Automatic annotation (TrEMBL):
Pfam family, one: Pkinase
SUPFAM superfamilies: Protein kinase-like (PK-like) (SSF56112)
EC number: 2.7.11.1
GO MF annotation terms: ATP binding; protein serine/threonine kinase activity
Protein name: non-specific serine/threonine protein kinase
Segments forming domain Protein kinase: 47-310
PANTHER family assigned: CASEIN KINASE-RELATED
Length: 340
């Protein structure tokens, strides 16, 4: 069942793209943002600025109209002269993704820079992100059938990014957006926000050795244990974050959901406890427990050098669907306005 949701009830994680920052934008930076109807010039076209979609500490996302044909797009911008360089990595990943023609990675249309103000990239407009969408339903969760199918699509997108040579390091529901107009027959998602990505192979194609110590990267609620231990993240760690995200889509919350994003140590302790029999039972309540226990055990057994077996993970989710009576052509929650 759909429920009305006030924007203030949505966590910050749902309302802004991560690399834009979780804190309020400082006043000097606000002055550099474009105003409505302001024209920005990219490498290929000009765009009229429309409504603001999201804002963070170092930038914002706007809807824009391409001047030549009036077609709507989204522009993600980052204020110049900040210590954030997330948009630069966005460009690197999106450029390579475009060359590889990846179906589940956001598509970049254009880029540009307004001197002394901001740099930006232009992308296709996308549907709601999965975090925003989840909060539209009673219990802040999807039905099992919808959640499992969304998780399968997210798994495909992560696999594509990994095959491109990058780890994401901030996998979470708000970084997956629906393909506009998709239905149960053609369900699709886009993976977005690549500001924290890192190439995991060197120029010779070998896996880069881990650094001795790295700063925390990610979002506290979904961060893998490696991030809490300040260890180098690998492909395995994106899968751990994907697993937490999948559990949350089914149950509506995680045992550590009530913690503030700065309570990283407390979140780490609770994630460690989730590996005990009692903790695993609590984490996996309302999920297909047997299959999900196997998924968690498999992910935890992976090493820094491991390449995840995406086929196995896909099989476990499909087995969950079969054992729970879920079908690929079940109506999606937002199609039938009912979840339970």
């Amino acid at each position: 069942m759909l429920q009305p949701v006030a924007p203030s009830r949505l966590p910050a994680d749902c309302l802004c793209i991560r690399r834009l920052g979780d804190d309020e934008m400082e006043a000097p930076f606000l002055d550099r943002l474009p105003e409505t109807n302001h024209l920005i010039v990219g490498s290929h076209d000009k765009y009229a600025v429309g409504k603001k979609i999201a804002q963070g500490r170092f930038g914002a996302v706007y809807e824009v109209l391409r001047q030549c044909d009036g077609k709507p797009f989204a522009v993600k911008l980052e204020v110049c002269d900040t210590h954030s360089h997330g948009l630069d990595m966005d460009f690197v990943v999106l450029s390579r993704a475009a060359k590889a023609d990846l179906p589940n990675v956001a598509h970049m249309i254009d880029r540009g820079r307004i001197a002394n103000h901001f740099k930006f990239i232009v992308m296709h407009l996308m549907g709601q992100n999965l975090c925003q969408l989840r909060y539209l339903f009673v219990g802040d969760r999807f039905s099992l059938s919808t959640a499992l199918r969304l998780s399968l699509k997210c798994l495909d997108a992560i696999k594509q990014l990994h095959n491109l040579g990058f780890i994401h390091r901030d996998i979470k529901a708000s970084n997956f957006c629906l393909v506009p107009g998709c239905s149960a027959k053609d369900l699709g998602v886009y993976l977005v926000d690549f500001g924290l990505c890192r190439s995991y192979r060197n120029s010779e194609g070998q896996i880069r050795p881990p650094r001795a110590s790295v700063s925390f990267k990610g979002t506290t609620k979904y961060a893998p244990l490696a991030a809490h231990y300040e260890k180098e993240q690998s492909l395995k760690d994106d899968m751990e974050s994907w697993f937490y995200m999948t559990v949350e889509m089914i149950t509506g919350n995680l045992p550590w959901s009530g913690l503030h994003r700065k309570q990283k140590d407390e979140a780490r302790v609770m994630k460690e406890a989730a590996r005990t029999p009692e903790g695993t039972s609590e984490l996996l309540k309302s999920t297909p427990k047997e299959e999900f226990k196997r998924i968690l055990k498999y992910i935890d057994c992976l090493s820094y050098q491991s390449h995840p077996d995406y086929v196995y993970l896909n099989q476990m989710l499909n087995l969950s669907m079969k054992n729970q009576g879920c079908k690929p052509d079940d109506e999606l929650d937002w199609e039938n306005n009912n979840n339970g």
